[in-house]
Design a protein that fits this description.
This protein is of the alpha+beta class and 389 residues long. It folds into two domains: 219 residues, Rhopdopsin 7-helix transmembrane proteins; 150 residues, Alpha-Beta Plaits, CATH 3.30.70. It contains twelve helices and five strands. Strands 2-3-1-4-5 form a five-stranded mixed beta sheet. Helix 5 runs antiparallel to helix 6.
């Protein structure tokens, strides 16, 4: 028996699945990450069972080994790919339903083919094509993910390579036909089994690396985003705004600060409850972000007070933008009848900043304008009179 014969590679795959399964269990127990990791562990366990039934074929009844073993592998790898594609988000129920239907159809089709007496070569062709399609599904899901990271794109490339190897194995099985056996002694079969072993390593490492990436992203969001509204918190808003403010100094272009405060927000909380009050804040954040666009920065300054930094925005442009915000709030909320009507007061300040100018000065002017809007009767815009340089 050579060092890399098919049986040895197959045994290493079985052993590797056991090791990966144990590492995943330890990982799940020692981290706070939830997601779909339990499903991934179940998938790895099913693959281990499937590999064991193939390894001990003969000791285990052949029919049971082939039908149950391959079904376990089909379901296990499908669970694995499902978790990789949806590692950072909970899939919709109809998406999960389609996955279940496809995997059930694959498992049933293989069972019927076996019971119909098709050759070993054709069963290998079917199984390898299924595994190849699984790998392509993982590659497509990773590469075309909304906001795919460099890590995801690299992993997608590896899954494409694995899919190609499986397709080669499928063609090999189809051409050999009746004389094909599970541990056929050929270079191509050995390479194909090595690809299965590599798939086991890459898929597990891919899931763990992306899980780590998701955790890092969530930690960064927790440090920079307001937990309720999803917009920037005060600290990170000021950090980003200071950078843009410095750019406006260099380019000698106007910058505007909007200070926005809800009118009688306590009445909303007292009348409808704090849960509805939270929904109002989240609704305002979504609506405002959609209007000001990505070129302007929105942050929660504290409580029911919000702040916008608008680079390259003159006083005239600021007034127009403020009027858009208030006009949008005047519209009925047709999509959500649970949100009560509310208004906001807005204070703005605009300047073409010079060297050594501090942004705090601009914020102070906008805050004073906001107080004036409150004194004038609320639900209006007041612009700071002085424009500094």
């Amino acid at each position: 028996m050579s060092l890399l014969d098919t049986y040895t590679v197959y045994f290493l795959t079985f052993l590797g699945n056991i090791v990966m399964f144990l590492l995943l269990v330890i990982f799940a127990k020692t981290t706070s990450f939830k997601g779909l990791i339990q499903h991934y562990i179940y998938g790895k366990l099913l693959q281990t069972i499937g590999a064991a039934l193939g390894l001990f074929r003969g000791i285990v009844p052949i029919d049971f080994s082939i039908i149950v073993g391959n079904s376990a592998v089909f379901i296990g790898v499908a669970l694995e790919v499902y978790c990789i594609v949806h590692v950072d988000r909970a899939p919709l129920k109809n998406v999960t339903k389609r996955w279940i239907q496809v995997v059930a159809a694959i498992t049933l089709a293989f069972t019927l083919l076996y019971l119909a007496g098709v050759s070993m070569g054709f069963r290998v062709f079917f199984s390898a094509m299924v595994l190849g399609l699984y790998s392509l599904t993982a590659a497509i899901g990773l590469f075309f993910h909304n906001g795919a990271t460099k890590l995801r794109k690299i992993l997608a490339f590896f899954f494409v390579i694995l899919a190609i190897y499986q397709i080669i194995r499928a063609l090999d099985g189809f051409l050999i036909g009746e004389s094909y056996t599970l541990f056929t002694a050929s270079l191509l079969q050995t390479i194909s089994f090595i690809s299965i072993y590599v798939h086991m390593l890459i898929s597990t490492m891919a899931y763990l690396l992306m899980t780590r990436e998701v955790i890092d992203i969530k930690l960064k969001e927790a440090a920079t985003k307001d937990y309720l509204t999803g917009i920037y918190n005060r600290m990170y808003f000021l950090q980003l705004s200071e950078k843009l403010f410095s750019l406006m100094i260099h380019q000698q272009k106007p910058a505007t600060i909007f200070m926005i405060d809800f009118d009688y927000f306590k009445v909303i909380n007292d009348t409808y409850g704090h849960i509805v009050g939270d929904k109002v804040l989240a609704h305002f954040s979504r609506e405002t972000q959609s209007i000001i666009g990505i070129e302007n920065i929105l942050g929660r300054y504290g409580g029911e007070e919000f702040i916008i930094f608008a680079p390259n925005t003159s006083a005239e442009d600021a007034l127009i933008l403020g009027q858009k915000l208030q006009a949008n709030l005047a519209l009925p909320f047709a999509n959500d009848t649970t949100i009560p009507k509310y208004t906001v007061s807005i204070g703005t300040a605009t300047m073409v900043p010079a060297a050594l100018t501090e942004m705090d000065n601009l914020i102070k002017q906008a805050d004073e304008a906001l107080l004036q809007a409150k004194k004038n009767g609320r639900n209006q815009i007041v612009q700071a009179k002085s424009v500094c340089k």
